[in-house]
Amino acid sequence: MKKLIYILCLFLILTSGAQAGWEKLWDGPVGTVVVRYDPPDKTVLFATRQDTGDIYRYNPDNRYWEKVGGPGKMFIATREALYGLSPDSQGVWMFTGKADKWTQVGGASSAIYGGGLYLLATNPDTGDLYKYDGTPMKWHKIGGPGKDFVVTNSRLIFGLSPDANGVWQYNSDLNWKQIGGPAREIYSPTVATGLYATNPDTGDIYSYDLLSQKWTRIGGPGKMFAADDWNNLYGLSNDGSIVWKYMGVPDDWEQIGGPAGEIYAAGKDLYIVSPHTRMLYHYVP
């Protein structure tokens, strides 16, 4: 009897632990993945087909992918909507929520950025940064050119200078403050207290705290990183063989997945695109 109880207990432990894993959502090959946080606890997932470039929205209730638009040069999402830049870069469009129904909100742009409540775009001639005012075709300039820009859900905007020699924080119209030196890439957290950046020489990742205005090295190099809306940070190893989760203490990372081509996060959710086959998976803790 004791042996039987032991075997049953061991079985329960193994099966409960096996609940954590990866759920396949798209057989692939998927192209671009876009995730949007819809408070208080919903994540809206979009993805493009690699062959056609058409963009689809995922319905988790029936596990169905609905085509919502044609191809675009790039897509981004704010907390309120999905936006796309036309293939010829001549227009910025907003998805209305109905399949194949889009409204033009901006003209020509070289790139679009977004997050939280802000949509940004760069002027194709000057590289200057503009912010969407919420009314179609109405934008105002907030800064000069940059290599990259990120937006948090806390209405914060950060930029990496064109030469990648400085990280800057947007304060008000045309007013930016330098908060860091050279960086390879910057990543938007989804909380009000920080920002992530990678060292251009070592690739190590650093966390910036707005309150103390200090940078702290928290991990080694990675192929890419992603942060969700609950202050969770994830990293993909340089060789793409391991997905890691940051445990909140410098150099303390837990492996949660194997090979991946890309990683994406929003809300409380993490997604990966598999290498080679480009199938889309959702992490189930």
Please, could you describe this protein's structure?
The chain is mostly beta strands. The protein has a domain at 26-71 and 222-285. Helix content is 6%, strand content 49%. The chain has 1 helix and 28 strands. It has one helix at 2-17; strands at residues 21-26, 30-38, 42-49, 55-59, 64-69, 74-77, 82-85, 92-95, 102-106, 111-115, 118-122, 129-132, 139-143, 148-151, 157-160, 167-172, 175-180, 186-187, 194-198, 205-209, 214-219, 224-227, 233-236, 243-246, 253-257, 262-266, 269-273, 280-284. The chain has a 4-stranded antiparallel β-sheet, with no helix packed on it. Strands 2-3-4-5 form a 4-stranded antiparallel β-sheet, with no helix packed on it. A hairpin with a 6-residue loop joins strand 12 and strand 13 (139-143). The radius of gyration is 20 Å and the shape is globular. The two termini are 33 Å apart.
